[in-house]
């Protein structure tokens, strides 16, 4: 427990005095007379803090500290040092003791040190949890050819400063890839700043991107840095660039060309060093053709293209992804991981996953929360509800074109699967010309096996 303390000292008087004052302060106190006794207690008890005398018979305080750390104990340790051994107490702090108190003990100082030690240990634990969580969120699961190629591409491109444009359907992992590129680059300890191009309010675009000087407009009470300046030295992630308004596109183009800008209301240009990674789930070539995206901006952004295939084109990754999310969410919710039966995995393979990995992740999380069963079969999958089936979900497409594209993609993939990827046979079965099928496949981004 966090507020429990183990006092390790061979002098009975010290043990009892400390016990008294610490109990008065609300701590739960236990004591041990020797290093051995301390290690024995640690085998079956957890303490927030250990007060450890430097001088102990047989194994001394330093050795005890070494051994308890070797056993993976991460309680906060405060050394108690006598006159002659302050040096030892200092070297103990190098071994991971938080601090030391000197005999004769000032009780006030001891209480304060114990409190600080516990607080510090708490913070370290929180910190570790958070960074574990962040690293977990960065894990890229999947051993399909496509995923392996993607990882390889990341490791080649990350160390350069090259601009990357990541394309892929919604939920395929574009942001994950952008963060992986950043964290494998030499900029990894610098900011990763995200701009959702669709979400910037039109009238605040300049101020959002480039910042403003104090008094630049009514309401600008203080100077404010824009995203480009905040990202200086780091990576700027431009998300959903297909939704960028014309005005933002023009601004973006200028700053990318010149690598500098002027904050609103200031005429002192600011130069920045940012690496730009952008992402889109729209087909930019269509947008360019229709005049909705500037081709000059496209070429500036698309120095190194990354294409993330949809989940239904790399179904080999499905079992590993299910396992990954199953383990992760079970741990998050303090439950035992489910066992997915072959029937469930098979059913999942036959589903379209239009929301890709995000949809799969949500599905597995929902099952962890909602399903009490230990074994998950096909019947336990909410996705197989007819109302969620692939065709019905085409209602969620905004336009006729996107709905029919999705349907055609489904249909073609299905036929290709039936013919083992033989395009000629698939075209025959579908009653279309082979060249027509090739063209459709290319347009729909279906890769030939
Ligand atoms: N290969 C993978 N391994 C593990 N988790 C993944 C993988 N790909 C995606 N994810 C997870 O799926 C979710 C969606 O990924 P992400 O946000 O990167 O997708 P996106 O392409 O940016 O989606 P959108 O277009 O909707 O913004 C995230 O929780 C991400 O961590
Ligand atoms: Mg995203």
Which blocks of ≥5 consecutive residues have pLDDT under 50?
A: 385-392
Oligomeric state of shown chains: single chain
CATH architecture of the largest domain: 3-Layer(aba) Sandwich
The named CATH superfamily of the largest domain = P-loop containing nucleotide triphosphate hydrolases
**Global structural class:** alpha/beta
How many beta strands in the DSSP annotation?
A: 14
What is the number of independent domains?
3
Q: Which ligands are bound?
A: adenosine-5'-triphosphate, magnesium ion
Return Rg in Å. Answer: 30 Å
Order of strands side by side in the largest beta sheet? 2-1-3-4-5
- Main sheet specs: 5 strands, parallel
Quick structural overview:
This protein has 449 residues and is of the alpha/beta class.
What does the model show?
The protein is of the alpha/beta class. The protein folds into three domains: 4-135, Rossmann fold; 146-309, P-loop containing nucleotide triphosphate hydrolases (Rossmann fold, 3-Layer(aba) Sandwich); 312-443, Helicase, Ruva Protein, domain 3, CATH 1.10.8. Helix content is 46%, strand content 13%. It has 18 helices and 14 strands. It has helices at residues 12-24, 35-44, 61-70, 86-94, 107-138, 145-157, 174-183, 205-210, 227-230, 246-258, 284-289, 295-301, 318-332, 342-349, 356-370, 400-418, 423-430, 434-443, and strands spanning 4-8, 28-32, 49-53, 76-81, 99-102, 164-167, 192-196, 235-239, 260-261, 270-271, 275-280, 304-307, 339-340, 375-376. A five-stranded parallel sheet has the order 2-1-3-4-5, sandwiched between helices. It has a five-stranded parallel sheet with strand order 7-8-11-6-12. The radius of gyration is 30 Å and the shape is extended. The site of adenosine-5'-triphosphate (ATP) has 18 residues, from α7 and α15.
